Amino acid sequence: MDDRGYVAQALFDRLSGDGLRWRLLGDSDGYPERAPPEVQLAVPLAALAGIPREVARFCHDLDLQLVQLAPEDSHAWRCVLAWSDEVGRPRFMSVRICSDYCRGLRCYLRAEDLLVGAPETLFSHGLVDAIESGELAPERAAWLCSLWNEDPRGAIERIGRFWPDRAQTRLVAQAAKQGDWAAVRASLGALRRTLRRAVLPDPADIAARLAVAARNLAEPAGAAIAFMGRESTVRSEVMAQVARDLAPLGLRFFEAGLISSSRAARAHLRVVFDGHEQVKDQDVVAVSSERGIPAIVVELERTILRWLEERVERRYPGALVGENPVAARVLQFAVRHRIPGVQFFMNCAIQCRLGSPVLMPYPFGIVMERGVSLGSRVTVMQQASLSGDVVVEDNVLIGPGARIVGPVRIGRGATIGPNAVVTQDVPSHDTVVVEKRRKDRPTVVNV
Question: Which of 402, 387, 400, 310 is nearest to 349 (CA)?
Fold first, then answer.
């Protein structure tokens, strides 16, 4: 089993274990030994709103990165999961989870039909999906032939609703019977035009889909990354390798001049080579050419994936991190944008970088110095203090009044109890609490 097949099968098992009805839309032959770059699933309409949280929990449990998440339309989410293979190269799997199957403003198939999974329904979905995307791969064509042979009459009745023109219906039927899709591939444009004339947009759903389109325009899943600083063959080679390795993410890479140039300002993330100025912006990455191309590429790819993961968490904090009170959201916004006065009134002193949102149920009296590094899904309670070079990994809970004095590392999933004082590393998933004072111990000791 390859790693993508393993991840896909694990996702199927998670959905089934959580009692969620789902249907794989696509060729299921070969799972879990292999999986396509994109997996398409159908779920009930009522379950669609909880998909971001479901996928986030799945990534958390399998130590995957959720690097892209966006509503494709009002009835579908598209997300990209990332991990590293055995030699450290990035691997990706795109997952499209829908209720009704829609493309643009048109709804072609309803969730209740997709979940039943009748051969003629899956045939219609596979054919419409190929025609809308403008590509009919040999694997998809072979799968369509197998579905056709299971129920030819049902399939031809179904496609007759999408292509009322009998000549086009016969074209598809002949291709499915004989297994020769050359004529269909040559007519994809005409078939798409007929399909869109036969299925008109639903007026009741237009407003919702336009709202999703506006959000995706304001917060695109892709990103522009500028490489700038001293021009050199190292910079060009690094950008070429990173662009090749991260190609499935659809990112746009380009070279720019100074960090203050207008072209660089259009980038979402800026990679500065051999810059002399101190980098303070969380959307700027400093790189030294002296480290060598292989080391730079590995570290830069990890940084970009981490930045993408943090961006997803900032966009969907309630689903991925937890629901913060208004005061905590205001505080973290002020910290990121260096707005004065807010921390003073909340008795806080947060000087470190906040990449991902931090869950702060009671955001008062919190101190985090400049050298502190926080992971994802970290919870910090009131009156907690982190000073020195403290590294807090993902999914850590820091209790009220806790004191962490660096340099220390708090492992993934660890819990620091109320009023605990930590001065040494804490292993992953460990718990640190204050022991009760005993007669044979002169002072309070933390374990």
Answer: 387
Helix orientation angle between 152-162 and 166-178, rounded to the nearest 10 degrees: 140
Instruction: Using DSSP bridges, classify how beta strands 65-73 and 431-432 pair: parallel, antiparallel or unpaired.
Output: unpaired
Structure confidence at residue 442 (pLDDT): 47
Question: What stretches of 106-259 show up as alpha helix (H) in DSSP?
Answer: 111-116, 119-133, 138-150, 152-162, 166-178, 182-186, 188-198, 203-218, 233-245
Q: Which residues contact 423 (CB under 8 A, 6 or more apart)?
A: 405, 408
pLDDT at 447: 44
Question: In whole angstroms, what is the distance from residue 72 CA to residue 42 CA?
Answer: 14
How far are the Cα atoms of 377, 403, 415 from residue 412, in angstroms, in the given order? Answer: 10, 18, 9
Q: Tens of pLDDT along 138-171? A: 989 999 999 999 999 999 998 899 999 889 999 9
Residue 228, pLDDT score = 87
Residues of the chain with pLDDT under 50: 30, 277-278, 441-447
Query: What does the longest C-alpha to C-alpha distance in the chain come to?
Result: 93
Give the CA distances from residue 343 to residues 147, 281, 328, 339, 375, in Å, rounded to whole numbers and listed in that order: 62, 19, 11, 9, 21
Long-range contacts of 99-102 (CB under 8 A, 24+ apart): 99/42, 99/43, 99/44, 99/45, 99/47, 99/48, 99/75, 100/45, 100/75, 101/25, 101/42, 101/75, 101/125, 101/128, 101/129, 102/73, 102/74, 102/75, 102/76, 102/205, 102/209
Q: How many CA atoms lie within 13 A of 189 on its CB side?
A: 1
Phi, psi for residue 198 in degrees, rounded to 5: -80, -30
* Nearest by Cα to 429 from 385, 384, 397: 397
pLDDT at 211: 80
- Say what the pTM is: 0.84
Percentage helix, strand, coil for the chain under 3-state DSSP, each rounded to 5: 40, 20, 35
Q: Which residues contact 112 (CB under 8 A, 6 or more apart)?
A: none
Write out the H or E segment, with its range, that includes residue 227: strand 224-229
Looking at residue 214, what is its pLDDT?
Answer: 82
Residue with the two structure tokens 């850590």: 396
Distance between CA atoms of residues 299 and 283, nearest Å: 16
pLDDT, tens digit (0-9, with 9 covering 90-100), for 231-261: 788 899 999 999 999 999 999 999 886 655 6
Q: Which residue has the tokens 């660890």?
A: 414
